[in-house]
Amino acid sequence: MSKRIEVRDLDVYYGKFHAVNQVNLTVQPRTVTAFIGPSGCGKSTVLRTLNRMHEVIPGAYCTGQVLLDGTDLYAPGVDPVAVRRIVGMVFQRPNPFPSMSIYDNVASGLKLNGERNKQVLDEAVETALKGANLWKEVKDRLDKAGMGLSGGQQQRLCIARAIAVKPEVLLMDEPCSALDPISTLAVEDLIHELKESYTVVIVTHNMQQAARVSDETAFFNLKAQGEPGHLVEIGPTEQIFHNPTQQATEDYITGRFG
Amino acid sequence: MTTPLNLRRPSGARAFKNSLATFGVWAAVAIATLPLLWILASVTIKGAPLLFTVGADHTIVCVDESDLRVPTSQCGTEEDAKGGTTRADGLRWAFPSGGKHVAVGEKVNLYRVDTAYPAADHIVYVDSDGAGEARFFSLQWWTSSLGNATSKDSQGGALQAIYGTLLLGLLTAAIAVPGGMLGAIFLVEYGRGTRAARVVSFMVDILTGVPSIVAALFVYAMFITTFGMKRSAIATVVALALLMLPMVLRSTEEMLKLVPDSLREAAYALGVPKWKTILRIVVPTSFNGILTGVVLGIARVMGETAPLLILIGYAKYLYLDPFGDSMGALPTMISDGISVPDGDAGSDRVWAAALTLILIVMVLNLLARRIAAKTKL
Ligand SMILES: Nc1ncnc2c1ncn2[C@@H]1O[C@H](COP(=O)(O)OP(=O)(O)OP(=O)(O)O)[C@@H](O)[C@H]1O
Ligand SMILES: [Mg+2]
After folding, report:
1. Longest distance between any two alpha carbons in chain A, whole Å
2. Domains defined along chain A, listed by start
3. pLDDT band for position B68 (50/70/90)?
4. Dist CA A73 CA A60 (whole Å)
5. Which of A138, A109, A155 lies closest to B280, judged by CA?
6. Domain map of chain B by residue range?
7. A159-201 pLDDT, tens per residue?
8. 8 Å CB contact of A104 and B377
9. Could you say which of B262, B272, B277 has the minimum Cβ distance to residue A95?
């Protein structure tokens, strides 16, 4: 089920702007990998190259390879739509579909990909909402608008929507930045569960969160504003937090950054 | 060191400025609204009696030899009227709003109740069947065409014009709505920043500025002069579509632009292809706005007169065929009747046609709101 991700010599650009320089990393299947680093160093950018979401932005492109179980996502002939079906994504800001009910939001991925069976949809919606720890709050108003939920509930709705399609890999860009501590814990528990069957990559600014949920941690940095960001080091979370090989990593983690 | 906070309302010059600004806004609203209300009120007051009949359908009044109205009592009682009594003094029963003379007891239709005398005083119900029957719609206005009624006659409806306006609006929308929406989708979703998009955008700008009469002349030159086709409702529809297309396109474009990219990305991230994202996420999200633009566009072309005058003219009889060379419409009905002297039945019809047009647009608007409210979950 879950897939190994290998990133080789990845350079990412926004038009002429060179955003990220030479990233090489491997994400093992059934692990959680956390991306940490200062704002603007390119964590989101790298994450978005993993499901070919980066190229959606006009003028944006990247060079290098991203291998999913050995298959290059950027090889000619690869359909980005097919890639995104396998590699799902949760965004920093909750973005439920405003024209849809709670139910339809969660079911949207399946419905839009052709699933019509009501029973299958019902089950998938319930499982996904339970998985995102939202079921109890919304089970009586599934037909109400998704926009009518609180910010934190909306984010969990988006997580439910992402896991309802059962991707192999789940990318999460600061998924908890809009959540209260209880919902955050719920999502972290969820990440632990997802790890059983999925490969998870999560961007976070919260060191404790990275320490709590991740097996591996990658630290990104940038030399100066306007310079491309780069990967400083990646290793087991335990080691990155307690025994980093790079001085920059230690400075960042201990808060002596900048 | 703490300085006291100043939380008082502004006073003096600044307060004056504030209230002046508020006053300015209200004044602007009033200046914009009052003439509008005035127009609406006068159209309604003058047009309503033909559309809505409250009271009897069959009435006549009492007039003297020179057709001047006199109190009903002088013509005798209602019973006299029904009984067909003839009077020696030259007073007679007559149709109230035109020169048409009526025999006592004859069945006639009333469209206009003259207010020179209190209604109860000078109106006599000739036909006992229709007497006092209150009905909201004047059926005749909506169900029969004008036919050979002259400007003096009060009979005859506007069916041919209502049909024409609805048909022209519908056919125009059938061309302009898909065209405009596809154009907008191309500009926003596919063409952003490309040369093709700039070209399309430029053409739309030009098209937006084309006066309706020029669009009509263009179609005339193209279809009728060059290809030798005859004037027809369809030719009119082409000209109207040229006017409506840029409106729909621009309004749809603005609405699509308002849809945040995060929604498109959310759909992409679920493995949904781009075309499906547009169809199922982007368009439904902006559906209400698009619908509003479409309704405004239809309202606008339904009121167009110039293309109709050039490409179809005006007909008083009901012709159903959109390929035929005759069709009535409300704007041309208005322009046809505008030279009729004030006070004649024909001049009432002008106002009634204007009111009908306004009502159709209003109903369309309400319908759109209905649909919009239904689609919003
Ligand atoms: N759409 C874009 N167009 C142009 N440049 C962009 C775009 N998005 C990001 N960038 C640039 O790319 C660089 C990396 O941005 P990115 O969003 O990946 O940072 P990040 O590490 O995720 O930061 P944060 O922690 O604040 O989310 C920044 O210099 C940013 O200005
Ligand atoms: Mg980011």
Report:
1. 55
2. 5-92+169-253 (3.40.50.300)
3. low
4. 16
5. A109
6. 61-136, 159-375
7. 999 999 989 899 999 988 877 888 788 888 888 888 888 899 9
8. yes
9. B262
Chain A, 61 to 90: residues with Cβ < 8 Å from chain B are 80-82, 84-86, 88-89
**Cα-based angle B263, B264, B267 (whole degrees, multiple of 5):** 90
pLDDT tens-digit map of A43-74 = 999 999 999 999 999 889 999 999 999 899 99
Nearest chain A residue to B288 by CA distance is: A99
- Give the other-Cβ count within 10 Å of A225's Cβ: 6
Q: pLDDT for A79-105, tens place per residue?
A: 999 999 999 999 988 999 998 999 999
Which CATH number applies to B159-375?
A: 1.10.3720.10
Q: For the stretch A18-44, what's the b/e string if a residue is b when 16 or more beta carbons lie within 10 angstroms of its beta carbon?
A: ebbbebebebebbbbbbbbbeeebbbb
Residue tagged 């209502």 (tokens): B162
Pair of tokens at residue A143: 């037909």
Residue A156 sits at the vertex; the CA angle it makes with B286 and B267, to the nearest 5 degrees, is: 40
In whole numbers, what is the pLDDT of chain B averaged over residues?
A: 80
B55: left (phi over 0), alpha (psi -120 to 50) or beta: left
The distance from CA A220 to its chain's CA centroid, rounded to whole angstroms, is 16
| Ligand 1, atom 3: closest residue by C-alpha | A14
Q: Contact B249/B184 with Cβ under 8 angstroms?
A: yes
The 3-state secondary structure of chain A reads CCCCEEEEEEEEEECCEEEEEEEEEEECCCCEEEEECCCCCCHHHHHHHCCCCHHHCCCEEEEEEEEECCEECCCCCCCHHHHHHHEEEECCCCCCCCCCEHHHHHHHHHHHCCCCCHHHHHHHHHHHHHHCCCHHHHCCCCCCEHHHCCHHHHHHHHHHHHHHCCCCEEEEECCCCCCCHHHHHHHHHHHHHHHHHCEEEEECCCHHHHHHHCCEEEEEEECCCCCCEEEEEEEEHHHHHHCCCCHHHHHHHCCCCC
Q: How far, in Å, from the CA of A178 to the mean position of ligand 2?
A: 13
Pocket test for ligand 1, best of A17, A89, A204 (most atoms within 8 A of CB): A17
Top residue of A54, A95, A101, A163 to mutate, by most chain B CBs within 10 Å, is A95
Alpha-carbon distance of A23 to A5, in angstroms, equals 13
Q: Is B192 on the interface with A (CB under 8 A)?
A: yes
Q: Are strands A169-173 and B124-125 parallel, antiparallel or unpaired?
A: unpaired
Does the pLDDT at position B13 exceed 60? yes
Note the ipTM here. 0.91
Residue B27 CB neighbours (<10 A):
10
Instruction: Kindly report the number of other CB atoms within 10 A of residue B7's CB atom.
Output: 5
Find the radius of gyration of the CA atoms of chain B.
Answer: 28
Q: What is the pLDDT averaged over residues B206-235? A: 92
Dist CA B69 CA B201 (whole Å):
64
Which pLDDT score is estimated for B63? 66
Q: Report CB contact under 8 Å: B270, A84.
A: yes
Q: Where do we find the tokens 């990104």?
A: A220
Residue whose CA is at the smallest distance from ligand 1 atom 9: A45
Q: Closest to A95 (Cβ–Cβ): which among B263, B272, B375?
A: B263
